[in-house]
């Protein structure tokens, strides 16, 4: 299964895709406000509300150690970096032969290395990718 840690725009887009492809996924978020979309995820047993970013008990309930990938995609780089750091720490304590890949969604260039140092195996920077695409298309 894939874990989406954070429930923002990118997570919502991924959820739509995963549902179409019948991909097993679980969302972990810290926002305790339950809107219609969140309620649907709760009803489908696909949303866990964590007391804070990267909470180890929530990661245990999500069986994070069995995930193929953990996508940490909060709405701010600070939240994503803390989420990555706590998730990496949880996984390291499990002493797994093969750990799930941690992918971090980072918005600002200056935070890419911070996410890597926090434990992200891969960083996706959508604003940078969009700017590069625009610049390439402008040539």
Provide a descriptive summary of the structure in words:
The chain has 6 helices and 6 strands. It has helices spanning 9-20, 36-43, 56-61, 77-94, 112-118, 126-137, and strands spanning 2-5, 25-29, 47-49, 69-72, 101-105, 122-124. The chain has a 6-stranded parallel beta sheet, with helices on both faces. The longest helix is centred in the middle third of the chain and has 18 residues, at 77-94. The mean pLDDT is 94.
Topology:
Elements: E1 2-5, H1 9-20, E2 25-29, H2 36-43, E3 47-49, H3 56-61, E4 69-72, H4 77-94, E5 101-105, H5 112-118, E6 122-124, H6 126-137
Question: Helicity level, as a percent range?
Answer: 40-55%
Low-confidence segments: none
Spatial separation of the terminal alpha carbons: 41 Å
Q: What global shape is seen? A: globular
Structural class: alpha/beta
Instruction: Report the average pLDDT across residues.
Output: 94
Give the percentage of residues in beta strands: 15-25%
> Counting H and I runs of at least 4 residues, what is the number of helices?
6
Biggest β-sheet: count, sense, barrel? 6 strands, parallel
Q: Going across the biggest sheet, name each strand in turn.
A: 3-2-1-4-5-6
User: Using DSSP, what is the number of strands?
Assistant: 6
SSE order, one letter for each helix or strand: EHEHEHEHEHEH
Rg, alpha carbons: 15 Å
Provide keyphrases for this structure.
139 residues, alpha/beta
Give a quick summary of the entry.
The chain has 139 residues and is α/β, with parallel strands linked by helices. 45% of the residues lie in helices and 17% in strands.
